[in-house]
Amino acid sequence: MNNKIKYISCYYPDKVTTNQDLQEEFPNLKIKELTRLTGVTSRHISNDLTSVDMGVEAARNLFKKTNIDKSIIDFVIFCSAGGDYITPASACIIQDKLGLSQNCGAFDINQGCTGYIYGISLADSLITSGNAQNILLITSEAITKTIHIKDSSNRAIFGDAATASLITKSGDERTGGFVFGTDGSKYDKIIIKNGRERYPLPAFAELDRMDNYGNVLNDANFYMDGSEVFNFSVTKAPELVSKILQNHGITFDEIDYFIFHQANQIILETLGKKLKIPNEKLIIDIEKTGNTVSSTIPIALHNAIDKGVINVGDKVLLAGFGVGFSWGGTIISI
User: What pTM was computed for the model?
Assistant: First the structure.
């Protein structure tokens, strides 16, 4: 199962909300403490842009940066919790907006924080099966659209962004095997409850309510049980890392860098301590973007390569965990 993440590009909306902006909006917000816990000082906001709009721009950035001939793209995978419509699949709209070949396959996945891992795994499988050679994997999240305007905690954590990765057949690069897991019993710990078939709007539109921390919530908006997510992350991620290493038959010390889903600063630091990862091997890249859900891993990977931190020949362990609850990971060679 040979393939290579050949290129990655990113797109960030122009609108930026800083912690100072949030402090002015929420005078009682303990911004210094929140900044320490989240590691976020600013985040991009999509405003009128949809996840499809941002995904298209990320792909255009990829084409401009690399001079890729668009005709070589024979599959588009779009990973997002959003999208323009319930149907059709947003990947089909993206195929048209990018002017890709009509011989190009296209489909959507919605897997949140583990989405990039699922995406590169699916790309691997399509290449291995002989059904594709060059796959455009787009992650794009306009998560801020789903957060209540008066939910200061989640507004401080999350941001909007998109990435585009070209995954191509290669005989000398190897992503290796993947590890996945799911605990669907915790599905409601990160959720937007109302708006689909089980609780359709407007029949199930509810009044706002306030939590113990003063955040305003509504079942039609994004909800996250922070303590449950923290406990899940710092428990499951070490188990995931151990299984990935075991499956690949390599040792902890052979990994050059670790890139986890960039949930927040405190989770990443706790994982680093529990796993005894040297600081120089743990990639933390959340300060200027916030938690961008499925886009956090490719953003961190792109930036580390772009800055010359990660170089050709390095082994990088990628691991995602979150909404679902789901988890997944692999090791790639750059």
Answer: 0.94
